Amino acid sequence: MKFFKNQWSNIIFIVLILILIIPQTRKPIQIFVNKVFSFSPSVTDEEDREKLADYNWILENSERERVNFSDSEGEVVIVNYWATWCPPCIAEMPSFQALYEDYKDKVDFYFVSGEEHTTTQKFLNSKDYDIPSYRMLSEDPKPMDGYSLPTTYLIDKDGEIIIRKIGAADWNSQKLRNKLDELITE
Asked: Which residues form the Thioredoxin domain (predicted)?
């Protein structure tokens, strides 16, 4: 009994390591940690902002219809690169869903995944999300890229990237909503 009294911290440490190693427990913990540490994304300083080279980008929606990103030229746009297997992506989805519900008629949303539509739709349906998911059929316009997941861009009506965020964030914050309202009225 004396052994256990002296070794509690070591036993707890070993249990925590085991929990993080076992795949069935690791993913929910990663999602939880990402949610806890997700803050509102920061707006890029004006002098550091980049502009889209063009809007030539062909996507495919979940009904397998072609969608041309150029239809969003002159609109406020949010582009999110994500995957169903990505814990930070999953962590920020509830905030995106809440934002989408309030801004879907004012902002063009593109949730872009490299996965099959059946995979993404199964995930979205299981969570009761109705955000629009797309697959790329052509290369994305530069300087955007989705090599790191999640990566999200907020683009103004002039094609200027106002926010470029790699990693999970709280996309339903009042700070971001205020920025969206400002961009929409410009």
From this structure: 28-185
Determine how β-strand 151-155 pairs with β-strand 161-166. antiparallel
Residue 147 has pLDDT above 90, yes or no: no
CATH number, domain of 83, equals 3.40.30.10
Domain residue limits at 148: 39-185
**pLDDT digit string, tens, across residues 95-108:** 999 999 999 999 99
Burial label for 30, CB within 10 Å (0-12, 13-18, 19+), is: middle
* Strand residues in 69-160 grouped as ranges (E): 77-81, 108-112, 133-136, 151-155
| Single pTM value for the model | 0.84
Number of structural domains in the chain:
2
pLDDT at position 146, please?
84
